[in-house]
Specification:
Radius of gyration: 22 Å
Number of helices: 10
CATH topology of one domain: D-Maltodextrin-Binding Protein, domain 2
Structural class: alpha/beta
CATH architecture of one domain: 3-Layer(aba) Sandwich
Distance between the termini: 53 Å
Length: 286
């Protein structure tokens, strides 16, 4: 019978699609991680990944096992919880890099102090990518921009905080003479930027596309263009001597950031507590 370590190894490999990367996460050698995966497949009598020279691709059999194995791990981690105070166990969370510079980044320290027995495993990426990973069970939850599209019925999104979308340009330069630095249009934040442009009647003559809010802010600092970005909480905008913030000509648009999760999963107690911690942190900031 497979051990808890073997099951944790499987979940790590599903996240990374790589035995070597999974091994680094859980503190094994690649050879040991590969042997544990082979052991699990042998015991179950099925292959869980389609293999090629560079990576492992989770197949239908492997995908079907993610949620029950996550449930087993959650139950194991909760053993003895009645004798402990506070939250414990692990939660695998996807997060926008920009959210780590926003309210989420501010509350991480509070979470660590409040719940020392809670382990948060953070992976970064784009909101649209996280949705499928939450559906597949590769992530327990994700901190994402509100979707511009209807979500599947099995998925819940809970608002955590809002950030005003702001127009920024380099100090001492006329933005009308600069290119517009646009966030990747097909992403959820990109669609929000496009909405800001439409609502405020901005005329965009030429532009460059970047898929990182942080990179866009830095490019504006260096004078390469102007942009529309969320007003991140951890950026000291008032002290930044190289960036000017301009008020929207017509209407302020807000980026709503929230917790994306399956409606039924094994770690809902943890996600509920994290939502409360976010609200506490947001309220204390005002």
């Amino acid at each position: 019978m497979s051990s808890i370590r073997v099951l944790k190894n499987f979940i790590a490999i599903t996240r990374h699609s790589s035995v070597a990367a999974a091994a680094r996460e859980i503190g094994l050698t690649p050879a040991a991680a590969g042997q544990q995966l082979a052991q699990l497949e042998a015991e179950l009598g099925v292959t869980l990944f389609d293999r090629n020279k560079r990576s492992l691709i989770l197949n239908n059999q492997g995908r079907a096992l993610i949620e029950p194995i996550q449930d087993i791990l959650s139950r194991y981690e909760s053993l003895g919880s009645q004798f402990r105070t506070g939250l414990s166990g692990s939660l695998t969370v996807g997060a926008l890099v920009s959210s780590l510079m926003g309210q989420f980044g501010k509350t991480l320290d509070h979470l660590k102090d409040e719940y020392p027995g809670l382990e948060l495993k953070i992976s970064t990426g784009l909101s649209s990518d996280f949705l499928q990973q939450v559906i597949d069970g590769l992530l327990d939850a994700a901190i994402v921009t509100e979707s511009p599209y209807a979500l599947p019925k099995s998925i819940r999104w809970t608002l955590l905080y809002e950030e005003a979308m702001i127009l920024i340009y380099p100090k001492g330069k006329d933005p009308s003479n600069l290119p517009f630095i646009r966030f990747e249009p097909k992403t959820w934040t990109g669609e929000l930027v496009d909405r800001f442009i439409r609502v405020n009647g901005l005329e965009i003559r030429n532009s460059m596309v970047v898929n990182s809010v942080e990179a866009i802010i830095e490019l504006v600092r260096q004078g390469f263009g102007y942009a529309v970005v969320p007003k991140l909480a951890n950026v000291e905008w008032n002290k930044d001597k190289r960036i000017v913030i301009a008020n929207p000509p017509r209407k302020t648009i807000y980026r709503r950031v929230g917790l994306l999760e399956r409606k039924n999963h094994a770690r809902t107690k943890i996600t509920k507590a994290i939502e409360e911690q976010f609200r506490t942190g947001a309220n204390s900031a005002h």
